[in-house]
């Protein structure tokens, strides 16, 4: 770490809760900049499951700066091109993630399985960073000189900073900043994702069909051997599924699908047999501040834009780089670093979350012909903006200058 001669960073040991994407990315940069990161992860090992994630814009740039872009590309593949169905109409939609101008300051985008990305990030830091698997934080107690942290299973530790990189249902956020309900904003739909065989022999394609109150998609994974099935179900309140068994969750989803056209019957059957099945409300985490004292949040824990935006991973990787970089620039002075982190991330987060509201509105339109018509018009109007934004290296559909985040060099 480059600091003035004889000057050591104020904060040195940084405990990171969460070993998915934001956590290991942050640990990489902290270690590179001279800090001592420690990762605590509730799972017993790296989580390898999960859905397809789309990488473009600043997320690709952040991976490139980590030296992982080529490996990530090799583990993934081109993003799918989209075809949208509304009633009897069929619109081919040219928004393939990989179809960007490579003369842009950001390289071409791609798609990769979440599990593959998690493994890649873990392997990049595991030799340099201490991991505590199978454990979680139960108490965070600020002191004059740092933070005392209590764990569910391990002995307590004293660290300089604590970072919550533990997702939308962040434990760190709840311990320091209050219950999730204070920051969680439901967007009106519930996202159901599962995997199945590529029964249509699709190649690098996403097919999306929507009806009043329901969206349904089939999307290829990189390699095209499997596809991802998606239902987006509009409900007045988010579905309560935490206390339900897997079978009960599937039964609930099945009961809320009012159509049997297109490929819906096949998808309903495949959903029951799928090894990967996830359901969650379309939710944004909105906070006035992502820091409190010596504690900060990064990624979905602080600013989940909603999975439908495709922005979560890019936000996590960019946020991790900026947070670590500002700690370096401030020589470990967390007060200065946290202020700069919030200033530099806020415009991009705000714009991404605006996209989240738009996406759920057209992907599962409100009931009635008017809702479907409005969804169709929104699609027509937005695709040219998607294309333009990608060519400019902006991973958002033209929401104004605030949606372009240029990564500084630390």
What is the average of the pLDDT values?
84
Query: What distance separates the N and C termini?
Result: 10 Å
Shape: globular
Radius of gyration: 21 Å
Task: Write the element-wise H/E pattern from the N-terminal end onward.
Answer: EHEEHHEEEHEEEEEHEEEEHHEEEHHHH
Write the CATH fold name of the domain at 13-49 and 113-183 and 286-363: FAD/NAD(P)-binding domain
Number of helices: 11
Q: How much strand?
A: 25-35%
Number of DSSP strand runs: 18
**Low-confidence spans:** 1-6, 90-106, 387-403
CATH second-level architecture of the domain at 13-49 and 113-183 and 286-363: 3-Layer(bba) Sandwich
- Spatially, the strands of the biggest sheet line up as 5-4-13-14-15-12-16
Structural class: alpha/beta
In percent, how helical is the residue content? 25-40%
Q: Give the CATH class of the domain at 13-49 and 113-183 and 286-363.
A: Alpha Beta
GO molecular function, one term: FAD binding
Pfam families: FAD_binding_3
Domain FAD-binding: 13-351
Protein name: FAD-binding domain-containing protein
Structural notes for this entry:
With 410 residues, the chain is an alpha/beta fold. Among the domains are: 13-49 and 113-183 and 286-363, FAD/NAD(P)-binding domain (3-Layer(bba) Sandwich); 188-283, Alpha-Beta Plaits. It is built from 11 helices and 18 strands. The strands form 4 sheets. The protein has a 7-stranded mixed β-sheet, with helices on both faces. Residues 1-6, 90-106 and 387-403 have low confidence and may be disordered. It holds the Pfam family FAD_binding_3. GO terms for molecular function: FAD binding.
């Amino acid at each position: 770490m480059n600091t003035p001669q004889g000057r050591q960073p104020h904060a040195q040991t940084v405990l990171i809760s969460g070993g998915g994407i934001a956590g290991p990315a942050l640990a990489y940069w902290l270690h590179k900049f001279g800090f001592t990161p420690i990762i605590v992860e509730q799972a017993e090992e790296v989580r390898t499951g999960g859905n397809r994630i789309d990488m473009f814009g600043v997320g690709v740039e952040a991976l490139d700066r980590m030296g992982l872009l080529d490996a990530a590309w090799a583990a993934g593949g081109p993003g799918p091109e989209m075809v949208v169905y509304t009633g009897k109409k069929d619109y081919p939609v040219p928004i393939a993630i990989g179809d960007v101008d490579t003369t842009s300051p950001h390289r071409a985008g791609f798609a990769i399985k979440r599990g593959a990305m998690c493994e890649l990030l873990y392997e990049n830091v595991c030799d340099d960073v201490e991991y505590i698997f199978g454990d979680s934080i139960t108490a965070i107690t600020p002191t004059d000189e740092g933070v005392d942290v209590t764990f569910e299973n391990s002995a307590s530790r004293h660290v300089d900073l604590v970072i919550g990189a533990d997702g939308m249902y962040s434990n760190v956020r709840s311990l320091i900043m209050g219950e999730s309900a204070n920051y969680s904003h439901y967007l009106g739909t519930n996202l159901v994702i599962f995997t199945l065989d590529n029964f249509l022999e699709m190649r690098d394609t996403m097919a999306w069909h929507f009806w009043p109150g329901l969206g349904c998609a089939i999307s290829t994974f990189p390699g095209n051997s499997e596809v991802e099935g998606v239902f987006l179900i509009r409900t007045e309140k988010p579905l309560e599924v935490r206390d339900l068994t897997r079978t009960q969750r599937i039964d609930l989803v099945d009961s809320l699908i009012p159509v049997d056209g297109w490929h819906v019957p096949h998808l309903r059957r495949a959903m029951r047999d799928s090894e990967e099945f996830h359901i969650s409300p379309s939710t944004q985490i909105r906070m006035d501040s992502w820091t409190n004292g010596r504690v900060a949040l990064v990624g979905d824990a602080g600013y989940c834009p909603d999975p439908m935006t495709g922005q979560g991973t890019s936000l996590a990787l960019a946020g991790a780089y900026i947070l670590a970089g500002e700690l370096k620039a401030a020589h470990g002075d967390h007060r200065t670093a946290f202020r700069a982190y919030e200033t530099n991330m806020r415009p991009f987060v705000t714009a991404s979350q605006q996209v989240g509201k738009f996406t759920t509105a057209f992907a599962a339109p409100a009931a009635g012909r008017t809702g479907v018509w409005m969804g169709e018009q929104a699609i027509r109007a937005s695709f040219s903006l998607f294309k333009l934004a990608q060519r400019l290296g902006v991973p958002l559909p033209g929401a104004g200058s605030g949606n372009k985040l240029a990564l500084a060099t630390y």
